[in-house]
Amino acid sequence: MSHTQSVYVSHCGGCHGIEGISGPTFVPMLRNAVGSFACTDEGREYLIRVPGVSMSLIRDDQTLADVMNFVLITLGGTSTPPGFRPYTAAEVHTWRQHPLSDPEFLALRAHVLERSLAACKKAK
Ligand code: HEC
């Protein structure tokens, strides 16, 4: 197992599953799903701003960028667009300072996902 993968397992795997499969819970499935957000800039940003990511105890931005690139490229599988640009430490640094907060979370998630899915479709 790579270093990045073991960081994922210890900081994220407890909720999201070591393979990104969270089962029938309120924790979203990452495996073959999370990449659907990555076809727009706002979607890329959303994935860093979700509380489990932005407020992660992984404080080092480069390490968190590596973990998110593992999440998108490996766990995201078929859902991740072929042209996915890996996250940089600078992007993570900027976006994690604005964690998403509760009230409008689900509505925001739905809109971000809808626009990204439309962009993914156009890119094909
Ligand atoms: C305590 C459990 C928990 C931990 C730990 C956790 N998450 Fe999450 N994650 C969630 C829940 C629950 C959501 C749904 C949004 C919310 O309610 O915050 C979520 C949402 C997400 C999303 C958005 C997916 C979508 O479909 O909207 C991503 C990406 C993500 N988490 C990745 C990670 C990564 C990477 C880590 C480790 C750095 C991590 N999470 C740690 C529970 C967790």
Q: Quick recap of the structure?
A:
This is Cystathionine beta-lyase. With 124 residues, this protein is an all-alpha fold.
Fold and architecture overview:
The protein has 124 residues and is mostly helical. It has a single domain (3-123), classed as Orthogonal Bundle (Cytochrome Bc1 Complex, Chain D, domain 2), CATH 1.10.760. 54% of the residues lie in helices and 0% in strands. It contains seven helices and no strands. The longest helix has 19 residues, at 105-123. The model has no long low-confidence stretch (mean pLDDT 95). Residues 11-12, 14-16, 26-28, 34, 47, 50-53, 56, 58, 67-68, 71, 109 line the site of heme C. Heme C binds next to helix 2, helix 4 and helix 5.
Name given to the CATH homologous superfamily: Cytochrome c-like domain
* Main sheet attributes: strand count, strand direction, barrel closure: none
How are helices and strands ordered from N to C? HHHHHHH
How many distinct domains? Answer: 1
Rg on CA atoms, Å = 13 Å
CATH architecture: Orthogonal Bundle
Count of helix runs = 7
CATH class, named Mainly Alpha
| Oligomerization status of the protein chains | single chain
Number of strands: 0
Report strand %: under 5%
Give start-end ranges of low-pLDDT stretches.
none
Would you tell me which CATH topology applies?
Answer: Cytochrome Bc1 Complex, Chain D, domain 2
Q: Helix- and strand-based class?
A: mainly alpha
Can you give the helix content as a percent range? Answer: 40-55%
- Could you report the average pLDDT, rounded to the nearest whole number? 95
Ligand kinds: heme C
Described by the principal axes of the CA atoms, the overall outline is: globular
InterPro entries: Cyt_c-like_dom_sf (IPR036909)
Protein name: Cystathionine beta-lyase
